[in-house]
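[job 4471] stage=fold_predict status=RUNNING
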Amino acid sequence: MTKQPTRSYVSHLLIYCCALYLSAWHLCAFATTQFSLTDALFKVAKKHNWQLSMTPLNNEPMVSLLEEPANLNAQLEHLLNHTPWTYTLYPTLNTVVITTRVLAKNNNNHDEAANALERILVSGQGSHNRSILSSSLSITHLNSAQLYNQVPFSTADTFNNAPGFWVENSGGETNNNVAPRGLRGGEGFRFISLLEDDLPVVYDGVWPDFFLRQDFTTAAIQIVRGGSSGIFSVNGPAANVNFIGQTGDNAQRKLKFTNAINYGYQRLDGVYSHQLSDNWYLLSGGFYRQSTGIREPGFNTDQGGQLSIRINQITPTYSQQWVVKYLEDKTSFFAPIPMQNQKKPRAINSLNAGTSTLLSNQLRYFFAPHGGKIRRYDLADGQQTRAISLTYLIDFSLTDSLLLSNKSRLSDLSTTLYTLMNQGNETLLPAKDWLNSAPVKQFLTHYLGSTAALYSPITQQYLDPTQLNNNGLVTFSYPLYAEYQQIQWINRLSLNWQMNEQTELMFGSLYANNDFSQLPHDRWLGSILTDVTHQPSPIETVALDPFGQKIATLNPSGVLSFSGPTYITGYGEAKSHSLYGNVRYSITDALTFDIGARTEWLQLTAVANTDQQSQYSQHQTITQSSPYRFKKSEQFTKTALSTGLNWQFADAAATFIRIAKAFEMPKLLNFGNTLGYSSYLATIPDTVGFGRPVELSFIEWGTRIADTSGFISASLFETQFDPLPFTVYQGNQNTQLGILISTQTYGMELEFAKTLSAHWSISGVAVWQNGRFKGIPSQLAESKYNNNQITRTPNAQLRITQKYRFSQGELALTASYIGTRYSDVANQFALPAYYVVDASAQWALNEKLTLGLSINNLLDTIGLTEGNPRSGLIHQQNQYYARPIFGRALNLSLHYQF
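[job 4471] inference complete, writing structure tokens
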């Protein structure tokens, strides 16, 4: 058993010291008012939260900044006046492009827009200098200016800015679900490879958002959907999402404090960069945050932060970076809550859909037998994450045409999770029905002449089952615990060879070694009877004698049992080695063809226990690990292929087509999960293992067009998953149901931005798709549900943002539409479509201070991201479990740039 991560305040102290250092440095900074033109342009762009795109300037002069510039244009006009250079603003891209005046005179506006798009290079493909416009991929690029103005909440929220994803971000800051291009909801970040500086955060894709947090050290996020994502990363066949880090040569000096107005939330972000010598640079930054949560359980739900230090060197022949990152944080996980009225959802009486939770101080502690001792579990511990990583990146120009690159990261990753979950909708029932249930009747047989009653151990009062919380309901909460501990080493080595003007080759190796001392298997610790209200209390079921005196208790402190579906432990090792290659060939100046392949060899070795049930007390049972321990080792080999064609038919317009076949490898977790839901004793069948790879194949056709006022990008796609494991949890005491199916989805993605006037702009993302179950085996009764809509994922989504810019800031309004989804395979339990409106404002108080206001869910909409995934293949019930989006949240922020 590994040591549980403890709450440490080292990271808190480091971040506060960093903030103090930034403030002290500011007192002696800017001793001179003269800057090189390049430095001055970077300062101006960063001050106004714009990206700067420019080639190196020769013979640049020393310049001074205006003390009180009216706006960005005035400052740029001042700096570039009487120079050979001019500028163009692209508000929809938040980009300033610096070009020569001769180029500006001799070329039209389309050239300038193409210049802006060509400046944004794409990671995760077979070239070190390939831009968005010349790529045969569906790409979304989010720059630091766009990320800077957002209120940081969760990694999943980032995906709302790109088409092609369904985001279930209602679980909290971590442990959310993002479904790409036709995958059903509820799979975590499955089929998506989250990367940081081109290296996967975790190899197998399990819980990646625990270890990846956005802050001011993030320079940009690039999202590649489909395309080459299965070639240049592992277990990300549907998408690669690369968080690109800031470097010290790009001046960054700012602080931001965010405070919630209508709930408890405070966050401090900071970043500082400094030139150490002629070609050495330092950048450090991070965040610290604490919160009681929008769904306040009565204790801090989120507390902690991260700190990173990056040192980079830039020379004419090579560049290298060292990155040290430390993360220590805790977050809460919010399960579904009881709802009613399926067609127009609203919370059950005593609950609020946007702010209520079934976590509480009254249920905070759970004492469970463990290894002959009693172990205490604390809801305030939530999801505790600790990560320490050391990354080394180097790019070396061997010759003018050969570039060698190596990226390596060693990580120590750990997380413990403890929360209360629900099970099937049948566990939400009238209190009077519980008193007449079979378990209670069996309990009363031990005490002849007795009757059953409900008793609160908190208030020490008997409860009226018909008037309980004005809804008369009770439910069962299920304590869930999991541990995650691994040491991971990932290395990427690649060689890029520009053979000639037409041909570019890339060859590479990607190696991952993952040593898990604890695999995060679900451990259901028992069941607790509670009432149904915000911050509920445990309820005891007691036997009363004919005189109304309590003579026995079925469930002391509300605990009915210490039994659950599994109580397994497991550990293991994964070794993955991939070889990949890509050829890019320019048929003409406008027509480019590429083809790539990756072969992966994977070895998995896992050890896990089965579990066994025994009697703990007169009325309680206990489930713990059995003496039977099993070991399994398997090897897998798979190959991914991808080919694309891009035709740049105008200066700022291109169309592409892409065909690909990729895969997801089996996970170490699969072996233990299979054991835990079965009754194997001395031996296991040969078929019990890790499963087999899941294949994804797709074809897409896309077009992107830009001009000086905006751009539009659209893609038609078809994806197929085969075979996709489908697991249905059927209650605390029932075996889970697992089947293999295939799915087929075709659809359209749209991304656009348009400047309407000097002040107004509009942007948006949209997706329409038709995702269907196609492969439920005919021998299963569930095969009649083939052609039904894939569960939990909407067919239609639309998100439109309108901005109004003025001299001192901007106002923004975002409207989102989420289409109808189905909670069950039978498509009988519909989750209605809903709209959400968000608003934000930025106001520059002076050249250093900016005040921000954001309002999420302005109209306090009730929308369900998911129904009850633990309620079987079919569920139709007026009172049901579902997870609504968070209610209205107001956040005030103060930005300080120096």
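[job 4471] summary: The radius of gyration is 29 Å.
[job 4471] exit 0
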